[in-house]
Amino acid sequence: MNIESSFATQLYASARRIAPAETPAANPAGKAAEGASFADALAAVSGEMAQTLRAGEAAAQAALTGQGDVQSVVEALTATELALQTAVAVRDRVVEAYQEVLRMPI
């Protein structure tokens, strides 16, 4: 199994938990779903990322003290690396969008 596809599957599952999709049949009045706001979703994702980073650090410390096995350390550090790459990619997109807004004529 590819570790990136596994991580993507986990992110998709967590996104589904944060903001479940609503079908028009489930919402006949056409009103917006009462769910988590974007800020709440962003806070939840950043909290999960911080937790992943802490788990990676804990696994690395356990390996240094001889308490952790190699496989769990590699898995934790890979998950940490993917979380960090995701955060950097999101940051780059936000900066790019901000710069695009600045370039708009008034």
Question: Overview of this structure, please?
Answer:
- This protein has one domain (3-102).
- The mean pLDDT is 78.
- The protein is elongated and about 60 Å long.
- It has 106 residues and is mostly helical.
- It has three helices and no strands.
Strand/helix succession: HHH
Helix content: over 70%
> Terminal Cα separation, in Å?
50 Å
Provide the structure class.
mainly alpha
Overall geometry: elongated
Provide the residue-averaged pLDDT.
Answer: 78
User: Tally of extended strands?
Assistant: 0
How much β-strand is present in the residues?
A: under 5%
What's the story with the biggest beta sheet?
none
Number of domains in the coordinates?
1
Total DSSP helices: 3
The residue ranges in which pLDDT falls below 50 over 5 or more consecutive positions are none
Question: What's the gyration radius in Å?
Answer: 19 Å
Write the layout of secondary structure elements.
Layout (H helix, E strand, L loop, with lengths): L2 H16 L19 H27 L5 H33 L4
Features:
0% strand, 106 residues, single chain, mainly alpha
Brief rundown of the structure:
By secondary structure, this protein is an all-alpha fold. The chain has helices at residues 3-18, 38-64, 70-102.
